[in-house]
Amino acid sequence: MIGDSLLLVPAIAGAVGLVMALILYFRVKSQPIGNETMNRIAQYIREGSMAFLTREYKVLTGYAAVVSVALGLTLGWLSAGCFVLGAFLSLLAGFFGMKAATYANVRTTQAAATGSKAKALLVALDGGAVMGLSVAGLALLGLGILYQIYMGTPEVSTVLHSFAVGASSIALFARIGGGIYTKAADVGADIAGKVIENIPEDDPRNPGVVADNVGDNVGDVAGMGADIYESMVAAIVAAMAIALTAPAETLQALTSDAEILKPSAIFLPLGLSALGMIISIIVIFITRMFSNSAPAVVLRNALIFPPIILTIASYLLMPVFGLNQTVTWALAAGAIGGGLIGLITEYYTAARPIRLVAEASLTGAGTNVIRGLAVGMESVAIPMIIVVIAAYISDHFLGLYGIALAAVGMLAGTAVVMTVDAYGPIADNAGGISEMSGLGKDVRDITDELDAVGNTTAAIGKGFAIGSAILTVVALFSAFNMEVNHARAIANLGKINLDLTSSGVLIGILIGSILPFLVGATTMTAVGKAAQKIVTEIGRQFKEIPGLIEGKADPQPAAIVDIATKAALFEMIVPGMIAVLAPVAVGFLLGPTALAGMLAGSLAVGATMSLFMANAGGAWDNAKKYIEKGKLTGHKKGSDAHKNAVVGDTVGDPFKDTSGPGVAILIKVMSVVSLLIASLVATVGG
């Protein structure tokens, strides 16, 4: 039987994670900060990052207010309050991570300036851990407290679903808005600097460089943090939703004790996530102990160990609580599947495929782009097969509930995944500060190595996020169908028909297949338009500011920051509203059958499309860096081959950091919104 003390574990684990994040935050702030020039540049980055976040949060606050009122009038004010709580914690996680990252960057540079690669790695990891622990801690704290209060009541489903919608919708806007900002600044600075003016990356004369470094924080720290936070919440809620609505007989493989069957099934996703949090904290501190090892080895092991340890812990603990090992096998399918997807992603973005993309640059930008597209397309196959196998194994042992647990297992190491992911932009910023401060080649060599590892681990993190999104959406799709049929049974109506010969299902599938392309198109267009404005402004400054190109005058980075900020905040509205309004429109106009079809269509297209874009972008990026490191014999940085690779990277930047993640969140948000309104649309059309 689940005791009261055990029910408190998720909230306690979340609180412990937040305390550890606070300790590491103050540890980062206590590190040496370097010279005046370094701190002036870091201050520009910090101020630009927080200014963007402040303006973005004002827009999102208005959105949350409108949606909460709509929810209050339709589903009740409890639903509205839980929506606001989910949204608020998402914003809070991004804020905590941003603060830590913008303090850690210059301190990482200073550690590198002392010649200590291990120390620089440690500072960057500590800064990333603040983000990782905050994300997982706030998710567990919020869900743990809500479940503790409302378990066993009729409101528990609405409470959990509303919290998840708050987390999901804010994550969508934060990820897309941050992604538009960071890639517009990155692409604009690269084209104006490397291609047009032929000056080095992170050159202090380039007014776009500060905006580029700001973008690393708003997109890859705050935006990615909101994304992973939402993924964790959605996975837990999907599993709990299935347990709440599924007939007891479909859960019998969980335990032979009928008395604890339902309570255990409902609580298990939270409990396992709390266990994952504890394991993540241990792994984070073990990782710190090995900071003298090669950075690539340290970070790869940090990502791989949590799934293995979680599987072992589950095997030992399930019998203690009267549960069968079917839980362990379902959990292991997701956890190990996530690790394998990460390794496959690493191969396509850091091994032989990037060499092939780099070699394609020898014959022009066109062949570079063609090869990169091919790598991205090929990279979809194995991860999707792994997801299918994970879903098959987990379904074999525990049915649809098992698939949901597999998604929970894939995200149980969220704190570590986000730690490693946030490490990347901190290391990238450290390299930019080093270059702009003129600290010399030895310092830049250290920061470049840390940054290169960060690019690879960021790709692995995206693989984790997208793989878990696919499993989560499968679980949410199942939960939606169960919720609809439960509501229809109460209304004395038959179950919805999901037969592929049904016109409603086919119409829904076709509608759903369109939406990932619309979000991809709007986000790519947004980055392109903003980048054009930035290139024009940088060109104007080089032309009109006397002495700028000679390094005798200061650029005006604030103008670039303002262009990128305005573009991001305006352009994120359309893709965000597509995700939120499409399920509502289809559900209320065409009914639950068409809505189920729409979810299926968007899942199939969105899953493959997001993997393709993320991996193609990663391959283009690292192919460019492959040439910059001198690994393409006879073709150094600044050569024609390098310029061709820069073109490919320019295409890939919005692929991997804006559109790909945006599509992955789209399919999750639509599923969570559909789950929330399931009872309202269940009887549409009779």
Structural features, described:
The mean pLDDT is 85. The chain has helices at 4-7, 9-29, 36-74, 77-113, 117-150, 156-197, 208-245, 258-289, 295-317, 326-350, 352-360, 365-378, 381-410, 414-437, 441-490, 503-544, 557-571, 573-590, 592-628, 640-681. It is mainly α and 686 residues long. The chain is globular. The protein is built from 20 helices and no strands.
Q: Unreliable segments (pLDDT under 50, ≥5 consecutive)?
A: none
Radius of gyration: 24 Å
Count the DSSP helices.
20
Q: Which range does the strand content fall in?
A: under 5%
Helix content: over 70%
By helix and strand content, what is the structural category?
Answer: mainly alpha
Rounded to the nearest angstrom, the distance between the terminal CA atoms is: 41 Å
Average of per-residue pLDDT values = 85
Shape: globular
Please summarize the sheet with the most strands: none
What is the oligomeric state here? single chain
Order of helices and strands: HHHHHHHHHHHHHHHHHHHH
Number of strands: 0
